[in-house]
Backbone:
């Protein structure tokens, strides 16, 4: 397998374009860092997969990123984090990992909380423990948002199919004052989500907090890019077609400006011998 020369990049992965919300925040905070992004869209959505499948995909992508020289891995997917991050940390005790989890702790400032996440995340032990810890004393409305990730991948922000599904999904939510975006795809359509909620609803996007955690870990481990550094490069690989990445990147100027390549159909990242 061809491994791009990527020593020193931050590896980022998701089932699709969702992790770009996190990559974009990392890029905004750490513009001198290079990124190697993997979208496993051949296997998306992870939310409809078994835990064993999500674990297997996450491990294969992490193996790839590390073989390609990533210095830190961002599991930019709540679903993969909820299932795989403990196992990944065990397998690679020296590698710094940053995961994404539904931000239920900051949501505790609200009274009527909604959590939007995939079915896998909502049923995971990690999420249930977080919810019991921070939100046990109030009602929590949860939605697995069936079909939303697929529509975001296919149509993008502001599209009629995304808006129509969100109106439908959120019509049963009642009077929420706080909504947690527990899937990295959802910040990409935050405007559409806000439009489907009552004005003034506090919508919590964890991308900025994840980027600050990347910064902290790089500094703590002495891994931050230093001057003079080889030129910044942002590379994007996907296991299926590249149209969703190409379309979404056009709306994320910081990532787009330093993008070097978008390589499609790298199925071997996650499919043995395919
Ligand atoms: N973006 C992902 C997450 O944060 C996964 C979406 C999916 O593939 O179902 O959970």
Residues:
């Amino acid at each position: 397998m061809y491994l791009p020369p990527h020593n020193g990049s931050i590896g980022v992965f998701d089932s699709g374009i969702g992790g770009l919300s996190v990559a974009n925040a990392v890029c905004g905070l750490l513009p001198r860092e290079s990124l190697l992004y993997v979208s496993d869209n051949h296997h998306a959505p992870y939310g409809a997969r078994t835990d064993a499948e999500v674990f297997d995909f996450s491990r294969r992508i992490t193996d790839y990123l590390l073989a390609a020289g990533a210095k830190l891995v961002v599991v930019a997917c709540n679903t993969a984090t909820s299932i795989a991050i403990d196992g990944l940390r065990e397998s690679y005790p020296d590698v710094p990992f940053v995961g994404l989890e539904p931000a239920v702790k900051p949501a505790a400032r609200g009274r009527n909380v909604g959590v939007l996440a995939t079915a896998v995340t909502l049923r995971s032990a990690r999420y249930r423990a977080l919810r019991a810890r921070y939100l046990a004393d109030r009602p929590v409305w949860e939605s697995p948002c069936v079909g939303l990730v697929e529509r975001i991948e296919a149509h993008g922000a502001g599209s009629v199919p995304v808006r129509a599904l969100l109106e439908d999904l959120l019509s049963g939510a009642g009077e929420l004052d706080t909504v947690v975006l527990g899937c990295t795809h959802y910040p990409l359509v935050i405007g559409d989500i806000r439009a489907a909620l009552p004005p003034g609803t506090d919508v919590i996007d964890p991308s900025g907090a994840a980027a600050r955690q990347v910064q902290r870990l790089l500094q703590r481990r002495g891994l931050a890019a230093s001057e003079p550094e080889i030129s910044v490069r942002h590379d994007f690989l996907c296991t299926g077609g590249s149209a969703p990445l190409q379309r979404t990147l056009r709306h994320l100027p910081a990532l787009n400006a330093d993008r070097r390549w978008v390589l499609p159909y790298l199925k071997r990242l996650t499919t043995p011998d395919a």
The mean pLDDT is 92.
